[in-house]
């Protein structure tokens, strides 16, 4: 049976359109962020000759919270799906909508990223066909900066793999212990009021980051990625539990300004920390930095949802279009960035002009691709779209 709400007054009376807008904005921030990864000193698949620390503070503005926000919204969406369909239907739907794009992405979309990485960093001289032979056979002979390049890989599609696993765990919980889910939902709704909306999740996330990050640094490989699971699974389940609480969404208004100030203050502290940090930094200062990191991460989630609820809680043709477009755009965007960044290098453009051009080209390529994908029935499921609603252009009316 579909899960029931905890009370007659808990279920929101209308679709949470503002969460669609938050999801849209968060996914499109990925284009800016991954273009930025080409220009900063942090490791990435390809690097610009202009790479420097100049825009790293801007990158830090979204680094702590961007993916956590998407897992939170995915948890909310999963809960609403489970209100409408049986858990078994939910599992089938999630598997089709996530695993097909993941497998297709790993075989078709992602390989150009890995190919151009070995071309640029290892001067690999083989053609793309030769590389794909190595790729599909799990070649592990490419060593980059002391690490083995794992092939095949999901690169940026790790989010899809994790989301599927978390969806399976949610389904399992509902299938085995639905009463426990309802009890947890009731308890959380009672707790998430006022200052506790900020303090309690931050306390958990800080404890996890302090305890696990050093031993289990982020690897996005699913196995042994215990710090990320302890964080991302928490926000996913939090979203699933709190989704139908009208009280929670109303309470956000009271803490939104405090949350926004915490985001700004934490961002400044993180910039100062990473600018001054050395290899022999005291452990207490490292732990303080981790507290500030999660403070910014959770406060940003709350602030984004609160302000979006105030200003973006409306429907429109743009929302409906972009809600469908974001997942195909997400699947494609990083490959387009890597290919185009590599291709633009011979032009030796100034960094600012090149960056703007790269953002525009990526967005244009993604949306042109989406316009093709949504019109071709066999491409739709490969990019997470429903086969049953293939786009048909409206014909001109006579006269």
Describe the protein in words:
- With 399 residues, the protein is mainly α.
- The chain has one domain (17-110, 154-389).
- It is built from 14 helices and 2 strands, in the order H-H-H-H-H-H-E-E-H-H-H-H-H-H-H-H.
- Strands 1-2 form a two-stranded antiparallel sheet.
- It is globular.
- 36% of the residues are buried.
End-to-end gap? 51 Å
Biggest sheet strand order reads: 1-2
Count of DSSP E strands? 2
How many domains, in number, for the residues?
1
pLDDT averaged residue by residue: 92
Rounded to an integer, what's the Rg over CA atoms? Answer: 22 Å
Element order: H for helix, E for strand = HHHHHHEEHHHHHHHH
* Structural class category: mainly alpha
Specify the biggest β-sheet: 2 strands, antiparallel
* 3D shape: globular
Query: Into which percent range does the helicity of residues fall?
Result: 55-70%
Number of H/I helices: 14
Low-confidence stretches: 5-9, 390-399
Per DSSP, what share of the residues sits in E-state strands of 2 or more residues? under 5%
Question: Any key phrases for this structure?
Answer:
two-stranded antiparallel sheet, mainly alpha, disordered C terminus, about 400 residues, about 0% strand
């Amino acid at each position: 049976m579909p899960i029931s709400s905890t009370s007659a007054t808990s279920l929101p009376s209308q679709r949470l359109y503002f969460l669609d807008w938050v999801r849209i904005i968060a996914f499109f921030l990925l284009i800016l962020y991954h273009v930025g990864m080409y220009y900063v000193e942090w490791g990435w698949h390809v690097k610009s000759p202009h790479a420097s620390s100049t825009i790293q503070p801007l990158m830090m503005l979204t680094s702590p919270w961007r993916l956590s926000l998407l897992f939170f919204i995915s948890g909310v969406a999963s809960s609403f799906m489970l209100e409408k369909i049986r858990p078994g239907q939910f599992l089938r739907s999630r598997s089709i909508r996530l695993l097909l794009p993941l497998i297709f992405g790993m075989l078709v979309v992602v390989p150009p990223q890995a190919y151009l990485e070995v071309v640029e960093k290892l001067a690999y001289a083989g053609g793309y066909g030769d590389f794909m032979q190595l790729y599909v056979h799990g070649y592990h002979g490419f060593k980059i900066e002391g690490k083995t390049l794992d092939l095949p890989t999901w690169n940026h599609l790790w989010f899809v793999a994790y989301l599927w696993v978390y969806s399976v765990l949610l389904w399992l919980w509902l299938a085995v212990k639905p009463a426990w889910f309802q009890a947890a939902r009731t308890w959380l709704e009672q707790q998430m009021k006022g200052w506790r909306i900020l303090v309690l999740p931050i306390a958990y996330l800080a404890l996890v980051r302090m305890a696990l990050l050093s031993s289990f640094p982020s690897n996005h490989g699913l196995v042994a990625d215990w710090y990320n699971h302890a964080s991302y699974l928490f926000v996913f389940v939090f979203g699933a539990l709190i989704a139908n609480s009208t009280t929670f969404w109303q309470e956000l208004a009271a803490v939104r300004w405090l949350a926004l100030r915490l985001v700004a203050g934490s961002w400044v502290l993180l910039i100062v920390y990473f600018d001054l940090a050395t290899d022999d930094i005291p452990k207490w200062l490292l732990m303080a930095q981790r507290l500030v990191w999660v403070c910014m991460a959770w406060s940003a989630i709350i602030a984004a949802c609160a302000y979006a609820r105030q200003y973006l809680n409306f429907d429109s043709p743009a929302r409906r279009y972009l809600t469908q477009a974001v997942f195909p755009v997400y699947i494609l965007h990083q490959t387009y960035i890597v290919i185009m960044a590599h291709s633009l290098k011979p032009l030796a453009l100034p960094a600012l002009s090149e960056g703007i051009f790269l953002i525009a080209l990526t967005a244009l390529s993604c949306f042109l691709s989406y316009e093709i994908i949504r019109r071709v029935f066999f491409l739709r499921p490969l990019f997470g779209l429903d086969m049953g609603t293939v786009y048909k252009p409206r014909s001109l009316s006579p006269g």
